[in-house]
Give the backbone structure.
Amino acid sequence: MTGGPLVVLVGPMGSGKSTVGALLAERLGAPYRDTDADIVAAEGREISDIFVEDGEERFRALEKAAVAAAVAEHEGVLALGGGAVLDAGTRALLAGLPVAYLSMDVEEAVRRVGLGVARPLLAVNPRRQWRELMDARRHLYEEVARAVVATDARTPEEVAEAVLDALEL
Ligand code: S3P
């Protein structure tokens, strides 16, 4: 049993989890880990390929296992994929951990991620898909979060600072 993650970042694609996570890791002098990268490394293929070749359900099963392993092992900053909170078991696992939700409004999301073809969930009609995605997930991010940090008008440095403040780190 380890001390567990120092910070867990959740939030939608493009909310800055990786950029802010790397800054937080630097500030805390702790390693950074990202469950999407763990899955890509273990599978030897990109996430978009997993979606196309095996479907979303298979990806979610891989993601659930990757999050459980990372939460158990990682004593640093941990960023989760945007959809990790869809799983009730994962949400239960996050209870009591220092979780920060990087929030972002839909218009900002469309600006940042736009037509990102590498993001399989947004390939058709990004604005409508964003709205639906956030309507389905907002309450799940809020449920697991100890702190909610708005990212819209902030630089990644400012967001990192706000996360440290909000989690009292
Ligand atoms: C997803 C978010 C992505 C990745 C996959 C699915 C989602 O992660 O896990 O494309 O369902 O929101 P990022 O949030 O790191 O982009």
About this structure: The chain is about 55% helix and 10% strand. The CA atoms of residues 7 and 27 lie 12 Å apart. The domain at 7-166 is CATH 3.40.50.300 (Rossmann fold). The longest strand covers residues 99-103.
